[in-house]
Design goal:
heterodimer, A: about 290 residues, mainly alpha, about 75% helix, B: about 350 residues, alpha+beta, six-stranded mixed beta sheet, five-stranded antiparallel beta sheet
């Protein structure tokens, strides 16, 4: 009796070839290619950075990071991000709002120009500021006359970082705000809400995850930027060296512990960014 | 509250969406703005709301000139085709929104707000959903919440932009009736936009037919149906057979009981239910044959065909009750005699 009730035969799941599946060898080849690529170009260097940073032990690592030049580099990096990220958040919000909610002449030009820092080499961005504010630049004489230092000083670094990172917030917001349309905001206005109340209570909650995502990417780039900052900084130790520049200077001086200790902080920042980014993507995906 | 629309025009680039519209809507009416897509009906509604501004003309609500007033200061309630509920708020918070954003002086206390919101949710029969989020509701429920939200601020005018446009046919039917009953209860002057003539006739007390930025006709649904002002309205409202009065048609129409009079016009519009069909006698010279028929529920739509000398022919549609069609015992290809009870005449 029992034998009748039993299923005819148990197939193992992987034995069944589904019509929609690609052949197994294709799947395995693609998976192993991408995994080994990530291993070779991501985990190997990352592991190397960390092992080199700790090559001479904890104490050396700690000393390398607490020496005054390294501390100054970290402070400058944080300062540059502290100024540029809020400014670019405001700029990103304003331009995304303008592009998705208003009709005005030059709108498509603005949309294109926002992407400019993505398409221009960072070195060129740096050179632009040297041409504008350097000793031989357009405003050079005036700046010297008024004893204002921009190039080879902190303002230049902030300006270069500002330029390189300004697309991030706007880029995240524009597609989302386009897709959402303005009906919810119109509804809020028709219910008697003021423009500001509508922004705070309706628009902002709808875009907050995308906004945070943009701010996060903006911050990561602001702290990690090398090319543009390198041109305008002048590499003055302890004064105009940001963390990425500090890494380069130390490395060129064969101070590999200092170089890799700095690099490990940047790598750590990248990992934190990645984790937060996945979290924000998950949040955003759940909402939409 | 009455609405007066005075000489409103609106252009989008070269395109004239509205061309000198004048319209008066008395207090307490439920008015349908009806027209094909692109006729300017939604633009007009948005101009009344203050969500769009007119190139010229003025808007008066209750005799007060509101032309320059911001949408938040017009005292209107607006219901959107795609609901536009605040997706990050619960149903309760959505409905409470308009009360909570009032100035401190006018803002009711939270207890009063809660009481009012629950009353409104009961009015739309959805109080049991108060703690849900919009994406957990069906389309019909969302639209009723949107209506409750608009009513919360006690608007003097309720404006609805294709309120049933995004809903399933069966839900739409229920909501139409529900909206009409709600309006009877509340008596707030309301305008809704629709491209569906059946919906306009069924729900509205007044229908305004728009076409290409003009008002073609305004009146009670029955008036517009029985006395269409022009060929456009006649064709747009309900079904109609359009016959050009060439010599050939004149003679035949006379045998069908319609005396042709040049002074009335050169095109005849005949409603399908104004055509009586019966089996032709053996000696009749009626040229019309029965092509086919379709069941429309209680009615049968009959497809009639009249061949013409030049080889082409005219198709006519007639409608009659199911019972009557059974009594006639007609088959495909049978010759039939027609009696046309009524026609509208227009000049083309």
């Amino acid at each position: 009796m029992n034998a009748l009730v039993q299923p005819v035969k148990q197939f193992k799941k992987e034995q069944i070839q589904h019509a929609t599946d690609d052949p197994r060898w294709v799947r395995y080849t693609l998976i192993s290619v991408s995994l080994s690529f990530i291993l070779l170009f991501l985990f190997l260097p990352l592991g190397l950075v960390i092992s080199k940073a700790f090559a001479s032990g904890w104490q050396a690592y700690w000393d390398a990071l607490s020496e005054p030049d390294a501390q100054a580099a970290i402070r400058l990096t944080v300062l540059a991000a502290f100024i540029t990220v809020p400014l670019n958040t405001i700029f990103g919000l304003a331009s995304a709002w303008a592009i998705t909610r208003f009709e005005f002449p030059g709108k498509s030009l603005l949309t294109t120009l926002i992407d400019l820092p993505f398409s221009v080499s960072p070195v060129i961005s740096g050179v632009i500021f040297v041409l504008l504010f350097g000793a031989q630049g357009w405003f050079g004489e005036w700046l010297i006359a008024h004893d204002i230092k921009v190039i080879f000083a902190v303002p230049g670094i902030v300006l270069a970082t500002l330029f390189v990172t300004f697309p991030f917030v706007a880029r995240e917001l524009i597609p989302l705000m386009q897709e959402m349309g303005s009906e919810e905001e119109e509804a809020a206005l028709s219910l008697g809400a003021s423009g500001w109340t509508t922004f705070i209570k309706v628009s902002l909650p709808n875009i907050k995850w995308a906004l945070l995502y943009g701010v996060l990417l903006c911050n990561a780039r602001a702290m990690g930027e090398f090319g543009a900052v390198s041109v305008v900084s002048g590499h003055i130790r302890g004064i105009t060296n940001t963390l990425p520049l500090h890494v380069e200077t130390s490395y060129n001086e064969y101070n590999s512990v200092a170089a890799f200790a700095g690099a490990s902080i940047l790598a750590g920042l990248a990992i934190v960014t990645l984790v937060l980014k996945s979290f924000l993507e998950w949040k955003q995906g759940r909402r939409l | 509250m009455s609405i007066l629309i005075e000489n409103i025009s609106k252009h989008f680039g070269q395109f004239a969406a509205l061309d000198h519209i004048n319209l008066e809507i008395p207090d307490g009416e439920l008015v349908a703005l009806l027209g094909p897509s692109g006729c300017g009906k939604t633009t007009l509604l948005r101009i009344i709301a203050g969500l769009e501004s007119a190139d010229e003309g003025r808007i008066f609500l209750s005799g007060e000139d509101k032309t320059g007033h911001h949408v938040s200061r017009r005292g209107i309630g607006f219901v959107f085709q795609h609901y536009a509920l605040f997706r990050h708020m619960t149903v309760f918070d959505n409905v409470a929104f308009g009360l909570r954003v009032k100035d401190k002086k006018e803002r009711p206390s939270e207890t009063d707000i809660a009481k009012k919101v629950h009353n409104l949710l009961e009015l739309v029969q959805l109080d049991w959903l108060h703690d849900r989020f919009p994406d957990q509701l069906s389309g019909g429920q969302r639209q009723r919440i949107a209506l409750a939200r608009a009513l919360a601020v006690e608007p003097s005018v309720l404006l609805l932009d294709e309120p049933f446009g995004a809903l399933d046919a069966s839900v739409r039917k229920d909501l139409r009736q529900w909206l009409r009953n709600l309006h009877k209860e509340l008596h707030v002057t309301s305008i809704f936009v629709t491209h569906d003539q059946e919906e306009a006739m069924e729900v509205a007390s007044q229908v305004v037919v728009l076409n290409k930025g003009h008002i073609e006709q305004q009146g009670a649904p029955a008036d517009i149906y029985d006395h269409p002002a022009n060929a456009f309205v006649s064709k747009f409202i309900g079904q109609t057979n359009v016959l050009n009065l060439n010599e050939d048609n004149v003679i035949w129409l006379k045998t069908a009981g319609i005396a042709v009079d040049d002074s009335k016009g050169n095109v005849a519009h005949i409603r399908p239910h104004d055509i009586d069909v019966k089996k032709a006698d053996a000696d009749s010279d009626s040229p019309v044959t029965l092509k086919d028929w379709q069941h429309l529920g209680s009615l049968i739509r009959v497809e009639l065909y009249r061949p013409q000398d030049n080889g082409s022919g005219t198709y006519l549609f007639a409608e009659m009750p199911n019972e009557r069609f059974k009594l006639l015992q007609l088959n495909r290809g049978d010759r039939v005699a027609l009696h046309i009870k009524h026609a509208h005449w227009f000049n083309s």
